[in-house]
C-alpha cells in the first residue's frame, strides 16, 4: 500500500494525506527520528514532527510533505499564537506549516512549563476567548505561515462558537 495515494480535499481547497505520522507518544527522541526516516521511505507524507533531513538529502521535496503543528494551551492568548508558530517553524527549519491546529479548547497560563501549576500543584488555567485565539490563527494563515487552520478536541458547542463568530474569515478545515 502506498500512503501517497490516499488524500482528501479540505474545505479550503488544500489537500491532506489521510494517513499521517505523529510523535505524541512518549518515546525517546532518537526513536522518533528513526521512525520519521523510515516512514518517509515507506511513502508517508503527512507529519506533525521534524522532517528537514530528508528534504535536505533530496529524498523528498517540501511541497510533497504535509506538515502539521499544534498550538499548545499555554499560547492561546492572541499575541502568543503567531509567536508560537514561528518558534515551531524555527525548530523544524520550515517556512510554513500545511496545517496549524488549536490542540485543545482550554487555555492555560502562559508558561514554559507544558502544564503550569501553582504552589499547591493545581493546574493554572487562563481566561482567553477562543474566538480571539481563532482570529490570531486566521492571521497566521494570512501571513503565509499556515496554509490551513483547524481545531482539535473541540466539542460541538466550542466548534459552533468559532463557526458563528462575527467576521469569521476562515472555517476550521478539520476538527480532529
From TrEMBL:
Q: Cite a single GO MF annotation.
A: oxidoreductase activity
Q: Which PROSITE patterns match?
A: ALDOKETO_REDUCTASE_2 (PS00062)
- Which Pfam families would you find in this protein's record? Aldo_ket_red (PF00248)
Q: Which UniProt keywords apply?
A: NADP, Oxidoreductase
Which Gene3D superfamilies does this UniProt record tie to the protein?
NADP-dependent oxidoreductase domain
SUPFAM superfamilies linked: NAD(P)-linked oxidoreductase
Q: Which residues form the NADP-dependent oxidoreductase domain?
A: 40-169
Q: Which family does it belong to?
A: Belongs to the aldo/keto reductase family.
> What PANTHER family does its record include?
ALDO/KETO REDUCTASE
**What protein am I looking at?**
NADP-dependent oxidoreductase domain-containing protein
Give the organism, scientific name: Oryctolagus cuniculus (Rabbit)
Amino acid at each position: 500500500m502506498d500512503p501517497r495515494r490516499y488524500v482528501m480535499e479540505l474545505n479550503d481547497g488544500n489537500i491532506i494525506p489521510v494517513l499521517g505520522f505523529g510523535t505524541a507518544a512518549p518515546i525517546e527522541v532518537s526513536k522518533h527520528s528513526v521512525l520519521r526516516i523510515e516512514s518517509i521511505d515507506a511513502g508517508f507524507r503527512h507529519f506533525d514532527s521534524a522532517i528537514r533531513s530528508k528534504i535536505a538529502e533530496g529524498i523528498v521535496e517540501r511541497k510533497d510533505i504535509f506538515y502539521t503543528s499544534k498550538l499548545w494551551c499555554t499560547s492561546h492568548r492572541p499575541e502568543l499564537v503567531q509567536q508560537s508558530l514561528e518558534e515551531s517553524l524555527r525548530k523544524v527549519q520550515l517556512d510554513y506549516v500545511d496545517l496549524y491546529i488549536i490542540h485543545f479548547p482550554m487555555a492555560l497560563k502562559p508558561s514554559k512549563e507544558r502544564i503550569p501549576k501553582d504552589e499547591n500543584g493545581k493546574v493554572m488555567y487562563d481566561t482567553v476567548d477562543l474566538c480571539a485565539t481563532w482570529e490570531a490563527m486566521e492571521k497566521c494563515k494570512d501571513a503565509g505561515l499556515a496554509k490551513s487552520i483547524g481545531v482539535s478536541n473541540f466539542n460541538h458547542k466550542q466548534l459552533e462558537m468559532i463557526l458563528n463568530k462575527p467576521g469569521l474569515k476562515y472555517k476550521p478545515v478539520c476538527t480532529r
